[in-house]
Design a protein that fits this description.
Blueprint (H helix, E strand, L loop, with lengths): L3 E6 L4 H10 L1 H4 L3 E5 H10 L5 E4 L6 H10 L5 E5 L9 H13 L4 E2 L2 H9 L6
Parallel strand pairs: 1-2, 1-4, 2-3, 4-5
Helix pairs in contact: 1-3, 4-5
Length: 126
């Protein structure tokens, strides 16, 4: 079963996202991947065999675009690696994105360990 996964990572966590995608590219390449612009570019460099559809960068509305897709039922899971140690001027957008993931009850992994559990549990396929 093919899913639509949203990938978002803050600047200090983009390398973690790229590493996670590279480790799991065999599973991820079977799914539709939507990502914010910069995260998508970095992930594409880490795993060239994965096709990634990008939206705007987070501070330019990308978080809101992905949130809208969640509300429309177009996203099956959110893999979001926020940076809890760096203040973000678009913090309200981040909170709105996480709120929508909670409201619409989609799986949401906020660190590589939890994202790994989604893969190991078979939620993203084996």
């Amino acid at each position: 079963m093919s899913l639509t996964l949203a990938l978002v990572a803050h600047d200090q966590k983009k390398a973690d996202m790229a590493d996670w995608v590279a480790r799991n590219h065999q599973v991820l390449r079977r799914h539709t991947i939507i990502s914010t612009a910069t995260t998508g570019r970095i992930v594409a460099e880490a795993a060239a065999d994965i096709k990634i559809q990008t939206v705007k960068s987070g501070p330019w509305g990308g978080d809101q675009q992905i949130g809208a897709m969640i509300a429309e039922g177009r996203i099956d899971a959110l893999i979001f690696f926020p940076d809890p140690l760096t203040p973000m001027p678009h913090d309200v957008d981040v909170k709105a994105l996480l709120r929508l993931a909670l409201v619409y009850d989609i799986p949401c992994a906020c660190n590589p360990s939890t994202a790994d559990l989604l893969v190991k549990a078979g939620l993203l396929g084996n």
